[in-house]
Amino acid sequence: MRKRIRAGNDLSALRTMAGTMIRETGETAGRVLVCNAVTGEMEEVERVVRSDEEWRRRLTPEEFSIARKAGTEPAFTGRYHDCKEDGLYVCVCCGNHLFSSKTKFESGTGWPSFTKPVSGRNIRTEPDTRFSMNRTEVLCRRCNAHLGHVFDDGPPPTHTRYCMNSASLRFVRQKDLPGRRE
């Protein structure tokens, strides 16, 4: 149900509503609050918004098709589906910290699978009904890149399976993480 705002109070009401939303989410139109997985601290960073042409110049054709146009790589073909190294998976588009290798598991699906993101603040989800399926799409909170989908058939204790596309991720080895704690 939509609430109507009187003409005389609309600007004041909108400012109040916007202030409440910013306090609740910690976000503004041009900035977003995310977790730095290396330091464990929350950071306010700029949202990354680019045109399709800019993304095409920065990404490979496969990365663009999957991360920017919600494509899917074929199972067992992605560079990280069988990766077992320690490190951090970040967004291929903007570098936002997404998943730790500590939460990666072998799901048998052919895509990198994780039990949880480094923080719920670093991703966002929305319903996906494409191809006559009811799924939950996972997107990067900082740049809206399509990452994959989340399902409720993962291992305990979370029972979630974040099924990601390798082409939407970039892996940073533990030893190469800037500012890492020993």
Automatic annotation (TrEMBL):
Pfam family, one: SelR
Cofactor: Zn(2+)
Organism: Methanoculleus chikugoensis
Statement: the UniProt record of this protein carries the keyword Lipid metabolism: no
Lineage, uppermost ranks: Archaea, Methanobacteriati, Methanobacteriota, Stenosarchaea group, Methanomicrobia
Alphabetical keyword list: Metal-binding, Oxidoreductase, Zinc
Top enzyme category: oxidoreductase
The family this protein is said to belong to: Belongs to the MsrB Met sulfoxide reductase family.
Domain MsrB: residue ranges: 52-174
HAMAP family: MsrB (MF_01400)
Catalyzed reaction equations: L-methionyl-[protein] + [thioredoxin]-disulfide + H2O = L-methionyl-(R)-S-oxide-[protein] + [thioredoxin]-dithiol
Binding site for Zn(2+): C91, C94, C140, C143
Cofactor binding comment, as recorded: Binds 1 zinc ion per subunit. The zinc ion is important for the structural integrity of the protein.
E.C. number: 1.8.4.12
The protein's name in its UniProt record: Peptide methionine sulfoxide reductase MsrB
Residues forming the catalytic site: C163 (nucleophile)
